Amino acid sequence: VQLQASGGGEVQAGDSLRLSCAASGRTSSIYALAWFRRAPGKEREFVSGILWSGANTYYADSVKGRFTISRDSTKNTVYLQMNNLKPADTALYYCAFQEKANSNFGSWGPGTLVTVSS
Is the confidence at residue 106, as pLDDT, over 90? Predict the structure, then answer.
């Protein structure tokens, strides 16, 4: 499975962005897909995840109510709609997938950079 994240950019606080993660290859092996981010000088952290079936979604407390994850099964693409962005959301955003529950996430790509200025 190959994942390609896109959609990052430079925005002002309060603005919105939509990130996309397009999956290709053996997508039938995907159990779940998630977004992670790494802010400058910080560890990588989980942001949001979705079961490939679309049945369940998960969010970090820091983004609940502002970010929405969704999946377009016809395009094998997962989106992260980010509203009311804050400077603290500035980070390199990655998507990754799991083949089964509790397994490690894999197929990390180069990510897409989100910069939020105040």
Answer: no
